[in-house]
């Protein structure tokens, strides 16, 4: 018996990822607190026990969704750029551009999960853990901006934390209007973000 068949165990139509996708859509549409397991079961056309077969609780579903978004963003910062032609490590502004482009790609590829992440307010332990990870990510971006300012690549008259917040405020706003399959794909959208965010910050 295949792994997929084992996962479904006679409950055709939804594996764990399928349930997660529908749940995230419901959380975004109605709010996490207002979406009960009963409502999810009705939306999925499954019994509550079928959902509990895949997830321990509603909080477990939320945790999986938020982890997917956060892990994607964290991986972008952790992903190293190759050495330059001269064998040197890339400068901070190149790494910052890499992170901005990567963040846009994560947002586009995991739009529902990132949307959910941006809406959490710390009302549960799961949300508080997610917010702690998000703040750690923000601090890494601020430090990277500070490095780029210190090396003279970016103007230094704007506080690094403000630059990070404004830049990711722009990126995060994409969830409010971006629709997959529109005129701009992830690559073009990343080009636009980098142009707007960095062209005004580079030292002339």
From TrEMBL:
Q: Could you name the domain of life of the organism this protein comes from?
A: Bacteria
Which keywords label this protein? Answer: DNA-binding, Transcription, Transcription regulation
* Classification via Pfam families: TetR_C_24 (PF17932), TetR_N (PF00440)
All copies of the HTH tetR-type domain together span 13-73
Q: Which residues bind DNA?
A: 36-55
Instruction: Please give the InterPro entries that the UniProt record associates with this protein.
Output: Homeodomain-like_sf, HTH-type_TetR-like_transc_reg, HTH_TetR, KstR2_TetR_C, Tet_transcr_reg_TetR-rel_C_sf
Return the PANTHER family for the record. Answer: HTH-TYPE TRANSCRIPTIONAL REGULATOR BETI, HTH-TYPE TRANSCRIPTIONAL REGULATOR RUTR
Q: What is this protein called?
A: TetR/AcrR family transcriptional regulator
What organism is this sequence from? Microbacterium sufflavum
Tell me the classification of the organism that encodes this protein.
Answer: Bacteria, Bacillati, Actinomycetota, Actinomycetes, Micrococcales
């Amino acid at each position: 018996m295949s792994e997929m068949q084992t996962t479904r165990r006679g409950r055709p139509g939804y594996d764990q990822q399928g349930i997660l996708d529908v749940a995230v859509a419901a959380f975004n549409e109605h709010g996490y607190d207002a979406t009960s397991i009963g409502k999810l079961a009705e939306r999925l056309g499954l019994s509550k026990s079928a959902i509990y077969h895949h997830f321990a609780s509603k909080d477990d579903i939320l945790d999986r969704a938020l982890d997917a978004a956060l892990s994607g963003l964290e991986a972008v910062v952790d992903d190293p750029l190759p050495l330059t032609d001269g064998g040197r490590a890339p400068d901070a502004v190149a790494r910052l551009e890499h992170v901005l482009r990567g963040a846009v790609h994560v947002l586009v590829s995991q739009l529902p999960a990132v949307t959910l992440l941006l809406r959490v307010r710390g009302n549960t332990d799961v949300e508080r853990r997610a917010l702690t990870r998000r703040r750690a990510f923000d601090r890494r971006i601020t430090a990277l901006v500070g490095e780029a300012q210190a090396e003279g690549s970016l103007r230094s008259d704007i506080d690094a934390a403000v630059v990070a917040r404004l830049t990711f405020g722009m990126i995060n706003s994409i969830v409010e209007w971006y629709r997959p399959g529109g005129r701009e794909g992830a690559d073009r959208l990343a080009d636009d973000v980098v142009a707007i965010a960095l062209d005004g910050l580079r030292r002339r």
